[in-house]
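Box 3.1 A note on notation
Throughout this textbook, protein chains are presented in two layers. The first layer is the amino acid sequence; the second is a token string describing backbone geometry. Keep the layers aligned when reading.
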Amino acid sequence: QVQLVESGGGLVQAGGSLRLSCAASGSIFSINTMGWYRQAPGKQRELVATATSGGSTNYADSVKGRFTVSRDNAKNTVYLQMISLKPEDTAVYYCRYESRISGTYYWGQGTQVTVSS
């Protein structure tokens, strides 16, 4: 089992910034992918950004140039730095951990990000 604890969500005005953190604990495999997904009301959960333990990153087109995903492998923690936030970024943001060996994945509990116009 892997536990994910997220923090850093909140309310911000359009154009503002937020930084999300997600710390993983438990049965962590060193070769893994951690990242962020989001779900807005009435919409499907969608990928925001991911980072592998090897350093590769992937971003949704809608956040490229505004969001940066990074990780501290020693702390099993992934971050999402968000700048130039838009009202359409409003959603619950979920952290995800996936073992690249077994394919097993886990979700965090989610953290609300609200961007006011």
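The mean pLDDT is 96. Residues 14 and 52 are 30 Å apart (CA to CA).
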